[in-house]
Amino acid sequence: MRSLNKDVVIALVLLAVTCVYFWETFNIVDPGYGSMGPKLWPRVILVPLFILCVTYLIQSLRRGAADKGEPFSIGVWFGKYRNPIYCFAIFFVFLLVLDYLGMLIAGVLVTFALLTAIGERTPRALGMHVVISVVSVGLVWALFTYVLRVYLPEGELIRVY
Hints:
Blueprint: H1 6-24, H2 40-63, H3 74-80, H4 82-118, H5 123-147
Helix pairs in contact: 1-2, 4-5
């Protein structure tokens, strides 16, 4: 029998967590108004997540155990996972400054930082990053603020509302 790889264990953990979350949707209290109950949206997200976890498990089982290659090194590991580490760090900074800068300014800055961290850093690319950041976050902010009437955090630096 082949030994299991780490992906199989991760897939099984994700399946278990997804099943627990789905089970917990039965504990959501229905307030009795509205056409859709509050249980619908969590289930809409959890069913595709379950399908993806099962697909991940099947692919992991087919692949088998990984070869015992080179020994573990922090430098190699960081090089392999550099972009996700940058993205998590940038998002963490975004969460820290959101109360002070507000959604509009912090959103533009985090979008620009993410595009710059994982994309090109030429002058032309940086200009495109600025345009994409301002337009995309500005449109989403305007949609939430003026169309949906959902007021996003404005921050202490600039009062918009």
